[in-house]
Amino acid sequence: MLFDLTEDQQDLQRLAKDYFAQRFPAGRLRAFWTGEDDDLGPVWRGLAEIGVLGLAIPEEHGGLGLGQFEFALVLEEAGYVALPSPLMETAAVAAPLIARFGSDAQRAAWLEPIASGEAMVTIAIDGSGFAVWGRESDVVVALVDGDLHLVPSAMIEWTALATDDEARRLAMASYHGIGPETLLAAGPEGVKHALALARSATAAALVGISQRMLDMTVEYSLQRQQFGRVIGSFQALKHRMADMAVSVQSARGLAWYSAYAQDHEPDMADLAARTAKSAAAAAGYECGRNSLQLHGGIGFTFEYDLNFWLKRGRALEAAFGNASDQRVEIGRSVLREMREDQISVENEEGVMSR
Amino acid sequence: MDLTLDPIQAAFRDEVREWLAENVPREELGSLHTIEGIEAHRAWERKLYEGGFAAVHWPVEFGGRGMDPIGTLIFYEEYLRAGAPGRMNRLGLGLAGPTLIDLGTPEQQARWLAPILSCDHLWCQGFSEPDAGSDLANVRTRGEVSDEGILVNGQKIWTSWSLFADWMFAIVRTDPSSSRHKGLTYLMIDMHDPGVEVRPIKQLNGVSEFGEVFFDNVLVPHENVIGSIGDGWRVAMLTLMHERGTSLNTASHFRAMLRELIGMIPEDQLDDPRILEELGWLHEHVEGYRYMTLRTLSELVNGKEPGSQSAMGKLFWSELQVRLFELGLRTIGPRAELWDSDPLGSAPKNWRQRYWLGRAAMIYAGSNEIQRNIISERWLGLPKG
């Protein structure tokens, strides 16, 4: 038993970190936001070239056959740079859903293009009817009347929505021609699975976003001077940053476990994803609230980069259920389990009794 | 990443599980605040010792099982699962013993380690003083060094288990001209010395778990010094590092408390979203603690320097634990103040007293404010204030 990265996993983490640092530095993010350079095609195709887009896609469909755990490491790094793209939607949610539930035709049509960077996929599974990067995507995993459908862009009309985080490119979908031929997974099982994948992946991204806000705040507090000393030496501020750090480390462990559970512990996948999402949303909130406060006026300006992470964090906190929503459901599930069998001794296979 | 047990770990788990199933006492042992309770716990500790399970984390040559941190975790998971009694000599097994194993001379190891395992010697920790709490380096208890030994005069306070302890590991100031971290010496003090006086302190929850310890010309021989004269701060820091290792405060311990809590929630509140949300918060934090500690243990097993989460455990569990007790108190309304039993409902015995002890945990072993200082200074690189 080891809850730590293997050497291969560390290499992958480093690969992703280096890739984003090189190809997507903070200045590039700003250029995207201002419209100076909004072509992310090269960054996306580069991700395919280093194997990231096909990480969790089976080898027979042109991927590397790794799992959600490996992909979570990449998503954390993508969150750290606030990458604007449907990376999670395409590779961490749509791809495994298509691989698991798709017909031969659907698998053949989409998995290899996803791995090679030709296809961009988004998801509309939370009942809101809108999706990130809708107009730019080639196909959508859509929740329609309780079933999951795989709907090509030709069958969708999009209406762009103005949002807080413009880099999410939200759009409202209206579908034409939904029918048996677009069906991906019928009934609640597929939806539940899709939401678990989405929550788990969102948690990983939020950990990266929270870590970035913490790092920016620590860095700023070591430079900014008031009363003749750096503000990072004041205990009131140090304790807030300590709390931010604790929230991030707790959320990271839960995000790792959730991603692992999606791969290896299917019975735990739903609860683990909710728990990870809840902790990550709490970390995002803790880090967002304190980073804005500790930056003072400068954090309120568009000229300073913090706002990119603040807005992404707030958006992802609410995505697929906020912390409060998750906790009520987690509470219900824990209550049921423990009430049903107060003296039960669970999980015969390991020390991880839950 | 691999959460399955390897064959050796699984075999150890089975061995522990089997032994506990046969040996865990069926009745609750008495309270640790009474002589009878202490004796009952001593008997249980001796049984563990005879079974070879007194300190599985100690090296085999010192009577342990040589378990790495994951093996130790497996032991305590099974221990909790079996509902075995709370461990008694935790300061000896967890702090004094490992410090002796690291830095003691062979004579010191031969003298003190076995009686810790068998629970013949109970240990207490002599660090805190009236003016040295969070500011531990402000220790003032004096130790005059001569050829005969170190003559100790002064006072310790908030000393847990001092009423029943046979030995104390302590730091005293042996260089009167020194200040702060210099000039301190780490000593083993015989609590039965006539110059040692222990006065119990009655706590707000009615019991006296800690006391004041006064030293009046207590002559401690040189062979009781750990490390060397003047090297006490380094040894003390090493002792404190063992506090971060594994112990009974595992996630499964808090999970068992969550189970108790759920058992006490009145039926008519089981659908209350305020209660459900708080239960969800507790589950999230128990599991968050599980993976933070598991990551630290895994890093140690992998020979790495543990990451920042290793400094967060005490802060995290102590605050989570208080919130758990508070939810229980909230759900039983005015019955929350009932003392030894709850004739009107299903609240576990002593829930309120345990809540107060939970509050103590936010103060002892480095107050949570000190923990936040450590996290921000050591792990975030922020300057000392």
Brief descriptors of the model:
A: alpha+beta; Butyryl-Coa Dehydrogenase, subunit A, domain 1; Butyryl-CoA Dehydrogenase, subunit A, domain 3; 2 domains; 4-stranded mixed β-sheet; 3-stranded antiparallel β-sheet; 56% helix; B: alpha+beta; Butyryl-CoA Dehydrogenase, subunit A, domain 2; 4-stranded antiparallel β-sheet; 44% helix; 13% strand
Main sheet summary of chain B: 4 strands, mixed
Order of helices and strands of chain B: HHHHHEEEEEEEEHHHHHH
Biggest sheet: strand arrangement of chain A: 1-3-4-7
Please, what is the average pLDDT of chain A?
Answer: 95
Overall helicity of chain A: 55-70%
End-to-end distance of chain A, in Å?
16 Å
Terminal-residue CA separation of chain B: 39 Å
Quick structural overview:
The complex is a heterodimer of chains A (354) and B (385). Chain A has 354 residues and is of the alpha+beta class. Chain A has 11 helices and 9 strands.
